[in-house]
Amino acid sequence: MDFSLSEEQLMIQQASKDFAQTELLPGVIERDDAQTFPDELLRKMGGLGFMGMMVDEKYGGSGLGTLSYVLAMEELSKVDASASVMVSVNNSLVCWGLETYGTEEQKEKYLTKLSTGEIIGAFCLSEPEAGSDATSQKTTAIDKGDHYVVNGTKNWITNGGRAEVFLVIAQTDKDKGHRGINVLIVEKGMEGFEIGPKENKLGIRGSDTHSLLFNDVKVPKENRIGNDGFGFKFAMKTLAGGRIGIAAQALGIAAGAYELSLKYSKERKAFGTEIANHQAIAFKLADMHTKIQAARNLVYQAAIDKDTGNDYTLSGAMAKLYASEVAMETTVEAVQIFGGNGFVKDYHVERLMRDAKITQIYEGTSEIQKIVISRTILKD
Ligand code: CAA
Fold it and tell me: What keywords are annotated for this sequence in UniProt (predicted)?
């Protein structure tokens, strides 16, 4: 497979790298400590086109392909995975579904603001008792003619505290199983809709994660995306693309840890020479480099599949599975290479290690990716 990048893609890669170094790197440790991310910085990202990268320009997006998006995700994630998860959720889980399946009215009302970063969105599938087992939705959306009444709780919702628009998956007809599930656009401030407390997390601490509570929330029928009962398929199709974004995030975290390790190994001395000259360290670097390149090939392949209209469920799942495992392995090794310095915050690698863990969990755990992969290859 030819992964040579176009002029435009190289430019996006460089611009994302520059933005990460000049705007995200300063303060990344403090943001992680304080579990914050300034609105101003997020607005800057919107202004540069990061929040609606794949959305058509007529809806305020950047009109780019998935490969460009993946390149940007990789560069941002090398430095700040909290920033990149906000980008990923807004692009892949919110804008993509709205643009692909939304009505013209829904796109005009929500998509333009979301893709320019004027507002931000959240994707609400997980529940206290429905994480991996996503068809077991307990949140209900009862059909009342011209509106639905939503009741229930959603958990671990990325952007939960700062989003204005929430794509909420809920069960309308339990007897129909996954075919009785809908997806509704819920707006912040709707009566009965409450944002729960912020989670105190191991990693991606700059991004906010909340539970959401729905208590008799009236949602107009025109806020349903797609036909009645389309909600579960909507979630699956959305996540198939979302997983490419998270795979790129994992790749970026791994590559960030590797680049820091390479530089450190050539500077830090032990036993009279730079530690890179010790085979124990050199072999670690060789393993990291090889695995990251293999992960990159899978991630780019999945992005190209999506851009060229091929099925990307399998390639996206493989990319996410492998890149997230490589992110975890690589960041653990990076901390080991840095030794005592790796264990303190100033050197960044401990944060990358903490950030890597979630890539094996959200948007489908590694075990879920293996279900998706094995079912596909066995069916074939
Ligand atoms: N595209 C289209 N349709 C799909 C699909 C896909 N990729 N995957 C499944 N479907 C369809 C199936 O065809 C089936 O429809 P039919 O019966 O009409 O054929 C229907 O969906 C149900 O599929 P399954 O029978 O395969 O369902 P299952 O109960 O066995 O579950 C699963 C499948 C893959 C395990 C799924 O439940 C799953 O992906 N779980 C993980 C959920 C997940 O990723 N959660 C992450 C939360 S979101 C998040 O993390 C966001 C964030 O904030 C960062």
Answer: FAD, Flavoprotein, Oxidoreductase
pLDDT in tens, 204-225: 999 999 999 999 999 999 999 9
Helical H runs in the chain?
Answer: 7-19, 28-34, 39-47, 66-79, 81-88, 96-101, 104-106, 112-115, 231-267, 279-307, 313-338, 349-359, 366-379
Of 7, 274, 363, 367, the active-site residue reads: 363
Which of 360, 285, 302 shows the shortest CA–CA distance to 327?
A: 360
For 161, half-sphere exposure in the C-beta direction (CA atoms, 13 angstrom radius) is 14
- Atom 3 in ligand 1: residue holding the nearest Cα: 233
94 lines ligand 1 (CB under 6 A): no
How far apart CA 122 and CA 144 sit, in angstroms, is 25
Catalytic site residue 129? Answer: no
Q: Which residue's CA is minimally distant from atom 47 of ligand 1? A: 363
Give residue 130 CA to ligand 1 midpoint distance, Å: 12
CB of 125 sitting under 6 A from ligand 1 = yes
Give me the count of residues in the chain.
380
Ligand 1 mean position, distance from CA 224 (Å): 19
pLDDT tens digits, one per residue of 167-183: 999 999 999 999 999 99
> Tokens standing for 357?
């863990």
**Dihedral sign, Cα of residue 85, residue 90, residue 94, residue 99:** negative
Instruction: For 129-186, write each residue's pLDDT tens digit.
Output: 888 988 888 999 999 999 999 999 999 999 999 999 999 999 999 999 999 999 999 9
What DSSP state is assigned to residue 108?
Answer: I
**Is residue 380 over pLDDT 90?**
no
Sole residue written with tokens 């933005």? 19
Q: Are 286 and 215 in contact (CB under 8 A)?
A: no
Question: Which residues are CB-neighbours of 108 under 8 A, at least 6 positions away?
Answer: 59
183 C-alpha vs ligand 1 centroid, how far in Å?
Answer: 14
Q: How many helices (H) and strands (E) does the chain have?
A: 13, 9
Residue 1 pLDDT > 70, yes or no? no
